[in-house]
């Protein structure tokens, strides 16, 4: 057992009996590709995404019994976003425990919000498979507590806020354009531009939606809307 994995398990509050399952949860696809026969964490990430969604939906329904489905959806979208998951993964010590290809060890994969979010979801799946939903639920409620408590009201995305701002002033809908796509695989970055009320702003993100949200946030920051 490496020191990094021991530290991770200490922060998780759980020691895995199935070491191969834990190892798989921490194996990035680059390492699996470099070591033929070594499974990556992609399938576990797929399952963990659903485990997180279930745990979070159950929790939000308990906390906000009178809230509409649409507002609950806005809350959960932020709470399961990679920008929320990455700091939690860092706090748990996931970056140091990740198994990444030797050729990528000097690349920013260990700091990638997408990679860290995927690994955290894979760990949730591993907990679910070995220890059951209760253990996974306990981890979610402990590690996401600050993020959940910070949502006094359902969050409104930058795109929603910008659209409300322009429509309120009779200026029509903002216009979004994807200006370029760079990088490959986990390092793919989208660049978007938004035009509204005679002003433009740009943003970047790992997908089109994230880039547009970043552009809207930048636009709102300039106008202080």
From TrEMBL:
Residue span, RNase III domain: 5-132
An example Gene Ontology CC term for this record: cytoplasm
PROSITE patterns in alphabetical order: DS_RBD, RNASE_3_1, RNASE_3_2
PANTHER family: RIBONUCLEASE 3, RIBONUCLEASE III
Annotated catalysed reactions: Endonucleolytic cleavage to 5'-phosphomonoester
Function: Digests double-stranded RNA. Involved in the processing of primary rRNA transcript to yield the immediate precursors to the large and small rRNAs (23S and 16S). Processes some mRNAs, and tRNAs when they are encoded in the rRNA operon. Processes pre-crRNA and tracrRNA of type II CRISPR loci if present in the organism.
InterPro entries: dsRBD_dom, RNase_III, RNase_III_dom, RNase_III_sf
Protein name in the entry: Ribonuclease 3
Entry GO MF terms: double-stranded RNA binding; metal ion binding; ribonuclease III activity; rRNA binding
UniProt-listed SMART domains: DSRM (SM00358), RIBOc (SM00535)
Cofactor entry: Mg(2+)
Family under the similarity heading: Belongs to the ribonuclease III family.
Subunit structure: Homodimer.
The enzyme's E.C. designation: 3.1.26.3
GO process annotations (BP): mRNA processing; regulation of gene expression; rRNA processing; tRNA processing
Binding, Mg(2+): 45, 118, 121
Class of enzymatic activity (EC top level): hydrolase
Cellular localization per UniProt: Cytoplasm
DRBM domain residues: 157-225
Principal subcellular localization: cytoplasm
Keywords: Cytoplasm, Endonuclease, Hydrolase, Magnesium, Metal-binding, mRNA processing, Nuclease, RNA-binding, rRNA processing, rRNA-binding, tRNA processing
Active site: 49, 121
């Amino acid at each position: 057992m490496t020191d990094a994995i021991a530290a991770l398990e200490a922060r998780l509050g759980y020691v895995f009996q199935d070491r191969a399952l834990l190892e798989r949860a921490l194996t990035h696809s680059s390492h699996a590709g470099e070591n033929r026969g070594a499974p990556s964490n992609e399938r576990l990430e797929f399952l963990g995404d659903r485990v997180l969604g279930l745990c979070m939906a159950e929790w939000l329904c308990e906390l906000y019994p009178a809230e509409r489905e649409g507002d609950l959806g806005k809350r959960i979208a932020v709470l399961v976003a990679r920008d929320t998951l990455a700091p939690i993964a860092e706090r748990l010590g996931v970056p140091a425990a990740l198994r990444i290809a030797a050729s990528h060890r000097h690349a920013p994969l260990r700091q990638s919000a997408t990679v860290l979010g995927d690994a955290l979801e894979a760990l949730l799946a591993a907990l679910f498979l070995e220890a059951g939903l209760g253990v996974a639920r306990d981890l979610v409620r402990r590690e996401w507590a600050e993020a959940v408590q910070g949502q006094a009201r359902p969050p409104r995305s930058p795109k929603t806020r910008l659209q409300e701002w322009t429509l309120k002033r009779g200026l029509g809908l903002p216009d979004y354009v994807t200006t370029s796509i760079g990088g490959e695989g986990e390092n793919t970055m989208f660049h978007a531009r938004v035009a509204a009320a005679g002003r433009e702003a740009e943003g970047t993100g790992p997908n089109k939606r994230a880039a547009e949200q970043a552009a809207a946030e930048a636009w709102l920051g300039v106008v202080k809307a």
